[in-house]
Amino acid sequence: MDPTDQNLKTLLMKDPARSLAVAESLTTGHVQARIGAISGASLFFRGGVTAYTLKAKVELLGVDREGAERCDCVSETVALQMARGVTKLFEANIGVATTGYAELDAEAGVSSPYAWWAIVEQLPNGDLAERSGRVVTPLLDRVAVQDLVTDKVWMALMDYLRAMAEPTGSS
User: What is the spatial distance between Cα 145 and Cα 68, in angstroms, rounded to a whole number?
Assistant: First the structure.
């Protein structure tokens, strides 16, 4: 385990402690497995879901069906909706989501694997703090793409939590 993985627990358990839930598509459970490898993860990790299909994204996470159909479920909007939805599903403060293409897809016009990730936090005042980003990967096999996207979303989550932990941290 990377030493920074344990830092996730430290950052989430700072006062006030926060909880985390994950919705994955492209990364198919890689983010959840990384969280689950942390000793004491049950203190902050509420759970996760791999929502691979449109139906799962809509029914479990509240993703807008029409919007998701237009982009084959791969967009910043879909990632944000997934992150919002997983916070509600697991009653967590923070939701993380990934969606994308792990391989080339000529029919969909995908010439390079890429993903969208999102982090959403329900703040104590009721507002939402949202971060999102796009990862374009080199031509790798699908598991290497999943691993790379997992690393990128992990780094984004750590950066977000560190920024929020600073006295001036705000969304």
Answer: 22
